[in-house]
Amino acid sequence: MSKVTNIFILFLSIIPTVILGRATSPLIEEDGPRARNRAAECVFGKEVKELGSQWVPDLGVPIGVLYCMKCECVPFHKKRRIVARVQCRNIKKECPIPSCDEPVLAPGRCCKVCPGDNYNPDIIQDIVPQSTIDEDEKSNKHFAALLTVRSSLILRNDDMQPIPNENKNNVVATGRFTIQKKNLYYSFYISDKAARPRALQFVDHDGSILEEHTLSSAGGHVSSSYQNVTRKVCGVWRRLSRNYRRLLKEEKMFVVLMWGTKDVTEFTLSGQIMKYVALGTELFSSLLEPAPNSDLTLMAGSGGTAIVSASTGLSPSIHIAVVFNGIFTANETSNVPVNITLSLDERRQIILEEKVKVSKPVHELNVIEVRSPVSPADLRLLTRGRLVLSVSSVSRPEALRLSGNVLTKTTCELFQTTLNSSGNDKNANPHGASGLAWVYLNSEGSLVYNVQIENLKENQLPAFITLNDASTKRKTELEDLTPYFNNGWANGTLDKLSPRVLEPLYSGNIVVNVTIPGFNSLIRGRLSPRFVADARDAPAPTLLRREDSELPVSTTGMVWLNVDGDCQIQYDVTLGGSTFSDRKMELVLETLPMIAPGAPVITRVLEEFRGNQVEGASTEPLPREELMRLGTGVAFVKIIDKTQQKELLKTTLPQIKLPSSCAPYFPENDIPTQVLDPSYIGHIEACFHEGKFYQEGDQWTTSDPCTMCFCQNGNPKCDTMSCPKVPCSGNQRTKEPGECCPVCLNSSYLSSELSGTKKCSFGGKFYSPGSYFHPFLIPSGFDLCTDCYCDPGTFEVKCTRQNNDKLCCKNCPVTKAFVDSENETYVNDPSSPNVIYSFLKPVTSTRSPQEILAAGGCKNFENPSQPYENGQKFHPWIASLGEYKCVTCKCKVSTK
Ligand SMILES: *[C@@H]1O[C@H](CO)[C@@H](O)[C@H](O)[C@H]1NC(C)=O
Ligand SMILES: *[C@@H]1O[C@H](CO)[C@@H](O)[C@H](O)[C@H]1NC(C)=O
Ligand SMILES: *[C@@H]1O[C@H](CO)[C@@H](O)[C@H](O)[C@H]1NC(C)=O
Ligand SMILES: *[C@@H]1O[C@H](CO)[C@@H](O)[C@H](O)[C@H]1NC(C)=O
Ligand SMILES: *[C@@H]1O[C@H](CO)[C@@H](O)[C@H](O)[C@H]1NC(C)=O
Ligand SMILES: *[C@@H]1O[C@H](CO)[C@@H](O)[C@H](O)[C@H]1NC(C)=O
Ligand SMILES: *[C@@H]1O[C@H](CO)[C@@H](O)[C@H](O)[C@H]1NC(C)=O
Ligand SMILES: *[C@@H]1O[C@H](CO)[C@@H](O)[C@H](O)[C@H]1NC(C)=O
User: Fold this and answer.
1) Can you tell me whether residue 2 is helix, strand or coil?
2) Ligand 3: does its nearest atom lie under 6 Å from the Cβ of 394?
3) CB 448 within 8 Å of CB 493
4) Atom 5 in ligand 1: which residue has the minimum CA distance?
5) Ligand 8 lining (C-beta closer than 6 Å)
6) Which atom of ligand 6 is nearest to the CA of 475?
7) Which sequence spans correspond to the domains of the chain?
8) How far away, in angstroms, is 422 Cα from ligand 4 center?
9) What are the distances in angstroms from CA 794 to CA 816, 821, 822?
10) Domain 279-408, what fold?
11) Fewest beta carbons less than 10 Å away: which of 236, 358, 675, 813?
């Protein structure tokens, strides 16, 4: 709200042109320890606006829409970077003068127009129809880049000096790029000999940085298990603005990988992002590097990539498109033949050999294609990553040669599904079995799979889990995952994968089919391809369980949740087993420091949605407590029906490994004690003590009967009592279990039946008849100057103030009070003239409590409607004693 107010003030004071909001790449303006890679886009209020977009600002209640303002998200250069800014101006002056005498101002407009005139100069025509965007995405979906040192792009640093490029090891990389819903998913294979690059940049042909992502911190560490296992670099550039989508479409964008540190770039690889037809059917990829024994001087900085498609039907064939450079001699300028071979283990057994002519060899990118039938056996070798592709010069075959293994395709993809039965048929799925599955291919071409099944009863075993091809009529069984099924999970790796799995897998036609004796198919789900990035780069998804019994029995869901380097939360939820399209739902994250009575809960609505799928991210970094709770506490994800306010599905998340940029608050080896860190609990204004949470101002007894605590500013303050002297000895003195101090009971009471059952109550605690104790006072602890006694006859607590100058305050009034044990209020004792007791006098102020607090006043816990004025003196009010005159407090500007 305060942000909105500021904007409003700016508007009023700096019209007509104000520049507000910053959406800069904080890589330029370092703010704190986090290396953020904010995109060049604008944030207005809480909305993200893409570069080039225009809108009429809506400032919300009470200001509303400013119809005469036009805001725009404009790009501008900041050294080498293109960043975005919100620019707003008053368009009133631009209104054309109406041609009629009595123009009218229609509601929601800025300019007056003549009645009947359809011309609306003040309407922003900024919306591109979704169908146009979809069409465009369909025809401009796949891109690839070869990243070598032979790139035409000249990179300069911020001082416009060319960046030195010492690629001594001839590192090569290749990238694949796919646009989906305006997001650009990217993936790379990089030479094994290179460490993981530090950063990635998308740049235009001038070398201006359009987008920059940090890929790893120092040491090339990668926290993603998918990227670790597949040796790929994966990520996404979200919300590509239309200008950038156009650049991409026109092949005018470059990608750069950078090694070194933030301050010193050691070397870079760059390449132009191009469209290749073969990408639409790519099943395998290859990264080609200068071959062993080739002339590394002649071939310095060269490389290639292959896009391999295969038809795995009855007469298998393959198609290879190779993008490469570096194998031409200086005098080879036209119609130069190159030799392309596919062999088992580097030239031992040649499977394919073909000579192809390159009509016009160039320094940067050359493309050749071959197509050939292959045997089913060769196809199996191809699937298992055993074949080597090489491209060599015909004139100098040994010296000028590129080669590389044919691997799982570069794209970072996994395949996932929920497992459910159809509808609410209890006979078909009597115990409501449900589950999830996700699989991916590793760099060796093995299928890594994880299947989770719940509510499978003993009598339903053995269960069979198979992968079936749903694109064939017979739903051919391709692979059997059953042998690994144990304890609700089937986790494993298929290293002899049938080549017939690949095509249906990439096209979303593989079904995970769970059958039990007597049922054809208990539950199943179709694996659908998803790009690995953000939420789906988490180690594993979590199964959502049905909470609402009115939902079909196998209603289930899967949730991916991750925290990125900007400390923003990313989520991806898929629901199955029921139709959700007609429900208004909320995806809710609840976090707690731990499961304990009274534990404070933070509830965050991540998104409102309809349907079976929701994916997104918070637009701002999560606050520290929530990050702590995600990392070390307890988190629930819930799907809530918004209309009926009931829980539909729910799960407990495993603890999330936070990126180092978001976990500066605790060392990794010391997490449990950090949760109890008083400064942390203090931040949330609740006290944690002996496994329980207490609210600010609460007092409580502890496991030690002599110790009492209270909660102040989020810190438990505890004090241990030393018992008052008791006026009895020997056999008159006993101690009750759970009681701190001895009890004095003369024989008549000892034998009485009352003993042990009824007790005195005082200050929230119970005392045995005959016990002596000191009252517990907030904030000073046990008041050693007051002795209290639980009268065994009346069950009243009687307290006496000791006039002990050494121990007690010198000039405080001597109080003697009686406490009614049930009412717990003080009453005057008129029989004692030295009792000075008065109830708290109401503060008379003309200001409201809010005003008093806002002006630095202090909270009055006893009477919240009458806070103390800043500077006001008062006696504290103590739960067990009332107003405590021995202490005078003064309210000094309170920030709360
Ligand atoms: C990455 O892989 C290596 C070896 O395969 C393994 O030792 C390491 O723990 C993995 N790291 C992560 C983050 O998965
Ligand atoms: C091209 O240059 C190579 C040396 O780089 C030489 O051996 C060869 O004869 C030349 N070929 C032609 C056609 O000039
Ligand atoms: C092509 O390369 C293969 C091995 O790499 C070699 O055996 C073959 O002779 C070469 N063919 C031509 C025409 O150079
Ligand atoms: C599982 O649920 C989805 C809807 O969420 C449905 O489309 C699908 O048909 C169900 N699966 C089966 C085997 O019925
Ligand atoms: C299977 O893998 C999942 C996700 O990695 C893991 O949570 C689960 O414990 C594994 N189950 C078994 C039985 O190995
Ligand atoms: C699941 O497996 C059963 C038994 O093998 C088979 O009859 C059924 O067609 C399979 N269903 C699918 C969708 O593949
Ligand atoms: C026992 O205590 C009660 C209450 O304090 C008192 O009235 C009574 O006189 C006492 N009796 C003896 C024998 O001390
Ligand atoms: C509580 O105190 C009020 C007046 O102070 C008195 O009228 C009432 O009887 C007391 N209640 C009990 C249960 O002693």
Assistant:
1) helix
2) yes
3) yes
4) 229
5) 820, 822-823
6) 14
7) 2-128, 133-278, 279-408, 413-532, 678-719, 721-801, 809-896
8) 5
9) 18, 9, 11
10) Immunoglobulin-like (2.60.40)
11) 813
